[in-house]
Design a protein that fits this description.
Length: 93
């Protein structure tokens, strides 16, 4: 595995905490994944290199998906009505 920034595992917890470097690593991972897909689509690589690229692509896809899942949870939490406010509204009715 290479030592490029995208090769580092993206921790969804850092995304949850608003760590901008986690977002940068996500974008780098996505860019690397797009490059891998382009190479695989050409069909010009050896079988061994294609398998290595595929394995790396799956790893990157999983990392990106974890970050997207965490972002989705954050959005859902932001959009949820505050439980305390809901309780007050019911009591004031």
């Amino acid at each position: 595995m290479d030592s490029s920034p995208a090769s580092k595992t993206i921790n969804p917890q850092t995304v949850e905490n608003g760590d901008p470097s986690a977002i940068t690593r996500y974008e780098q991972a996505l860019a690397e994944l797009e490059q891998i897909v382009a190479r695989l689509e050409t069909g010009e690589q050896s079988l061994e290199q294609s398998l290595k690229d595929y394995e790396r692509g799956v790893e990157l896809e999983r990392q990106c998906q974890r970050v997207l899942d965490e972002a989705e949870r954050r959005v859902a939490a932001i959009n949820e009505p505050d439980a305390d406010e809901a309780g007050r509204d019911e009591r004031s009715s």
